[in-house]
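Here comes just one.
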Amino acid sequence: MQEPREILRKIRRLELQTRRLVNSSFAGQYHSVFKGRGMNFDEVREYASGDEIRSIDWNVTARMNAPYIKKFTEERELTVMLLVDVSASGSFGSVSFSKREVGAEVASILAFSAIQNNDKVGLILFSDHVELLIPPKKGRLHILRLIREMLFFEPKGSGTNMITALETLNRVMHRRAVVFILSDFIASDFSKPFAVASRRHDVVAFPIFDPGEIAFPHIGIVTFEDAETGQQVDIDTSDTETMDQLAELEKNRREEQRKILQSRGVDIVPLRTDQDVLRPLRAFFERRERRLALK
C-alpha cells in the first residue's frame, strides 16, 4: 500500500506532464476531430449575398417580405467515456512502465484534452467484472480523481471481461459518446458488444503491448504464470523454435484482434510500453483530420 503523499506526488506529476502535452500538442487537434452531437439554432438574420439558399426560413421571409435565414452553431459539448482495463495482466511491464501506467498516461492526455474542450469525462474500470463506474462530469478536480483511480485502484478481479464492460457502457450511456478503450485486449470474444457499442458511439481502441511478452533472454527453463488465471507452464527459453512459435502465436492474436475491431468500425491506436505515446496519438489525430476532410 503506497503512502498518501507518494500517491499525491505521482498524480501531480502525471497531471503536469499530461497538461503540458495537451497544451502544446493535442488541444487543437482534439477540438477539430471530435464533433458535437449536432447543430444548435442561434438566430434568424436577413439574407446576405453568399448565404446558402437552403438556409432561408420561408415562414419568417413571408412575414417580413424579405429573405431571412436561420443561423446555427455547432454543438461542441461531448461526453467522453474512458474504459480502462485494470486486470492483472496490466501490471506487467518489462521496461520503465507497466501496461496499466501507459494506459493511465494516455487516458489522462485524452481527459485533459476533453475538459479543455468543455466536455464531460466518465470512467469505467474493468477486470473480469466492472470494478468502478464514475459518471461523466467536468472540471480539473474530477479529472484528478479519475487519474487517481486509474493509477491506484485495487481491483478485486484478476481476469478480463470486456463484454461486461461494454454492456455496462451500452446500458448507462443513452446518448452518443466518444469512447476510449485502453487494454491489452487479452480477452475472450468481444466482437458482438463492440458491434453494438460502435453503432451507438464513436469508439477508439488503444491496444497496449509490452515487448517482454514475446522476447525473453535465453536462460533455460523458466516457469511462467498467467497473471489472470494463475495457470503455470514451463518453457525452455533457450529453445529458439519454441520461442519463435510463441512469438508467432502472439502476432496472430494481435492481428486477429485488429481485424475484429476494424470490422466493427472501431479506430485502433496501438501503444507499446517501450515507446513514447506521443507518436501514435499524433498519427491518430492526423488520420481523423484527413478522414473528416474527405467527408
Observations:
- The longest strand covers residues 38-46.
- Residues 4-33+77-294 form a domain with the Rossmann fold fold (CATH 3.40.50.410).
- The longest helix spans residues 4-33.
